[in-house]
Amino acid sequence: MTIVSPVLIVGAASDIGRAIAAEYAKAGASLILAARDVRRLEDDAKDLYYRYKAEAQLVECDILDAAQREALVGNMTEVPGTVISVVGLLGDETIAWSSPAAANQIMQVNYVAPSLLLGAFANRMAKMPGACIIGISSVAGDRGRKKNYTYGSAKAGFTAFLSGLRNRFGSSELHVLTVKPGFAATRMTQGMALPSFLTASPEQVARAILEAHRRRKNVVYVLGVWRWIMLIIRAIPEQTFKSMDI
């Protein structure tokens, strides 16, 4: 399948966002890179042009600011053919247990704000041939675990939103792809003891996204083994699951 440009990447200053930008640039796409501080993307844009001759427009947007989200959707002279939401916040789960403000921030960043943004773009993209919306969720949303249920519940909500959006536009030109990474070696997980055989690099995540986009997949796990791991975890009886320290 042909990738429809321009490709808007929201959260483009993240490790995975940068890897996605490079992967789509190599595929010949023009880019719109959005982040809270676009100055962080200036060198990236130059590098993308130098390496791949890819044009990259920079747009400032704090996804938690409703006015900035509306401006991002409404002020574009050219509607993107592809929109990818990479925004995410792991947060500190133990703080979120006793701090409504901390819990709210995790939920807003991982579920509410990206859902509202992608829903608004979907309305504009519905009739564009080959249009695609891609949301990066997480395997953490497949089942609530006591060690990260605030983050996991937000990702579960985002996963459900993307599923509903996909079904709503199932008979239209617009396709919706849900991406579920497991462990990823990024700044967000820096310092965590992650098993190497279950941990993807940002580049692996980016390649999996582009391949799934081209094949019009509905859901993709990265790494693929996570699909089977989460199948097993979801099958554990609740009474047993309650006693497990995961």
Briefly, what is this?
The strands form two sheets. The protein has a seven-stranded parallel beta sheet with strand order 3-2-1-4-5-6-9, with helices on both faces. Strands 7-8 form a two-stranded parallel sheet. Helix content is about 45%, strand content about 15%.
How is this structure best described in words?
By secondary structure, this protein is α/β, with parallel strands linked by helices. It has a single domain, classed as Rossmann fold, CATH 3.40.50. The chain is built from nine helices and nine strands. The strands form two sheets. A seven-stranded parallel β-sheet has the order 3-2-1-4-5-6-9, with helices on both faces. It has a two-stranded parallel ribbon with strand order 7-8. α2 links the parallel β2 and β3. α1 crosses α7 and α5 runs parallel beside α6. The radius of gyration is 18 Å and the shape is globular.
